[in-house]
Queue: 2 jobs
Job 1
Amino acid sequence: MKPQLTAPIPDTTVFDLAASRRGYRFNRLCASLCVPANREAFKADEEAYMAGFGLVEEEKAMIRHRDFKSMIEHGMNIYFMLKIGAVTGNGLYRMGAQMRGESYEQFLATRNVKEAV
Amino acid sequence: MARIVAGIGLSHVPSVGPAYDRGKQQTPAWKPLFDAYLPVQEWLGRLRPDVAIVVYNDHGADFTFDRYPTFAIGAADRYAIADEGFGTRALPEMRGDFEFSRHLAESLIHRDEFDLTVCLEMGVEHGFLVPMNLCFPHGPGGWPVATVPLQVNVIQHPLPTGRRCYRLGQAIRRAVESCERDLRVAILGTGGMSHQLQGRRFGFMNEAFDQSFLDRIESDPEGLAEMTHQELMEQAGAEAVELIMWLVMRGATSKNARRVHRHYYAPMTTGMGLITFEER
């Protein structure tokens, strides 16, 4: 057998089964946002919505603070995070800028064609 | 007898969907991408495929981690447009071909022992739809081809190996060629190229890697299939590992298939690649 994952990659979270188990509640909540009525319910009362998914307090705080970097580190899958990003007005590039530790404008300045958004 | 007439490797970047829906094809930022597909559409118009097998990954619209199949194939007469969290795009539903899917599933599972999950209902999202928008634009009468969605787990490790994906492609070729119907089949391997969407390394791209991958998917796919996930992720970004889906396409096309188109454009956070093959 050729090992497929052999060493940590700097500044990178690998979404494996341990991460998926850790972030299971997070990812269930995100997946539920594929239903329009659920997106409306989330926007109307975030706390009540989170209560339905058994999140621990630490996880709820990450959502309240839109702390995308921590969400990824705690097992939220990036493609599922896009759904909570959409419902809170944070597109991929805004979340990405935060994870890089930059402002949105600083991040855009690093791109080849920043109009292709 | 059914046969594969075309293979296409291409990226499925989500932002292409809204750009397409909002008519941004000719804006300076998007024109290089959309224009690259005009000759591809013309070429496909000449090849007239009846069915497209689309190898893609779902991003949490249709499959979630309570059960996440390594390989899943659709077997239905139609596939719904899924809402992946941003609303349902105004596109006609996809046309399927149940009997062809059934034949593929039987051949893959019995002949080559690829035990795929078979889905009688699937909703498709950007991983599938963006390649369809680029290669097979729909008209008032719907889509010009029937489709077979083939979903691959490229997001929750352990993922299938590159070699397994390549062999799945070879098995798909045998499955197609053992179908007695007179069908012309295109196969699309989607995803990539270099990109990383999380962590401090967000936004990482590697054009040199991408160009080398485009070279090797043409000339040395078997060597490429030996790359580990570690090597792919280190060199091209964690999310670039989905390039293993191109190997399914390349396994299904013959070694001496003629490369027809090749294009690369990397405006924002993903190297958007395109390569096409035509059977001789």
Job 2
Amino acid sequence: MPQNAAIVGGGTTEWGARDATWKDLAQEAGKATFDDVDGIEPDDVEGLFVGAVQPERFAFQSHVAPLTAELLGINANKMIARTELACASGQAALRYAWLAIAAGQLDVALVLGVEKMNLGQEYMPEMQSNMTNVLDREFDGVNGLNGPSHFAQFAQRHMHEHGTTREQLAMVSAKNKNHAAETDFAQYRKKVDVDDVLDSYPIAPPLNLLDCSGITDGATGLLLVSEEKADEIGAETAAYITGSGQSCMAGNSINNLPSMTTWPQAREASQEAYEQAGIDDPLRDIDVAEVHDCFSISEIIEYEQLGFCEPGEGGQFVEDGRSQLDGDVAVNPRGGLLGCGHPLGATGVSQALEVYRQFAGAVPSARAVAGDPETGLIHNLSGSGSVHSVMTLARDPQ
Amino acid sequence: MSDHPSNDDHVLPDGGEVPRETISIPSEVELPRLLDFYELQDAEHTQIHEFYENLRDGRFTTTECRECGELHFPPRIVCPECTSDDLEYVDLPHEGEMYSFTEVRGTSAIGMNEDTPFVAGVVDLGQIRLSARVDDASYEDLEIGSEVRLKIVEIDGPTDQDRVFYRFTPV
């Protein structure tokens, strides 16, 4: 019987364009995490898992997990790893930590996601080169396809095949950015309405600037511990991992994407997680969902693939208010990637911490999920959309 | 109280000054060849050099597996369907239709930022779909289904190799 594992707290840096190095960010998030959790000190940590995508390019630093151990005074005497799975690296770090605890290899893990990305406008071509390299550099990157220009084509095809409207895309951005206005570490804290999104610069048509997440510096940490350890420290709130699924097609390059309107791997990964968690009807059984809204279109496709609505109906789902805080499932109460920004390695960690904080009632009332949430989900895609990672969480152990 | 020198005290305990010297690093670093997006295309650097040689000769080709018949794109040296390495180069159509597209108007990658705005998309060639740039067109000029044809660009860049790549242009 595998051990249960639970998040018992965590902390974050401020996210945005930070006057801070990679190492500064790691230290800030580490301190915030240990400050948040009573009963666990750096000396107690047995496993350290660092989600980081491109420190080699943005900070000219590799072997970052041991460097982090040094910075935070951690002797990771059971397991240490850096995870790189592009935009899903944070969730990958959490998943490895969960597997190690479930397997009984360790009881206390620090999961830290760190990304230094925003080098200023002068170096934006360097940043865009790095994002482009996430696809097949030789046959996709060479065509100038990066985040906005890749996901713009999903939006175009979804509008073409399903009649999804420009306004429905804007509704996703407005919803999430308005949540982020209440999130104290978010990169974008200005309230916007649908017209603001529609009027923003068409940076990669049909996507506008406000349909896109940011270029973000940030780090977030959390402590994942065995159920026994959670009891030992008397954790008041815990977010237990109840299921975890991941699926990757035999394809990463755009040249081998069979569809630009569906993500079958998101369906597979979520079904796997639901099965482990005993979830029959995600819309009924999940109170809060932190999904990967790297672009507004992404969240619409995710409603469909995570089983919240039928394929093609994602636009209507947001238009009908079903993903609002008081809707059928509260989607991205933190503000999502659209509002909080997207420091690649930190995003999944921050999503999981948000679910914990919603369980703990530790968020401002303006973005608190209605009705005392007890179950949650985090979802990340990575690369061209060929890989999806889904994790379910619950306030009580299974 | 402390024996440590204060912050503005640059005098060593023996009375001498801390030695200092200005060192120089290059004021500019040349763009390394590795940072441009085009591979070195000859037989000394890549095992898919035949793809590039064919393209240089005006033929758009890719690999097909002699064992299982699978057609690949990009070209491979091992078939991802059956792991055979018995592959041959076959011709691809030079004309296709736009499956999806956008226009890159924000900042783009090193070496192509100067090209913005430019159209990039997915071209449907029937047997395969591939990502590509579309020259001589703006976003407003195209629709899903617009017909495009192959164009070869010769890379005038920081190596003395005759490098080429494919793009498309409206019919």
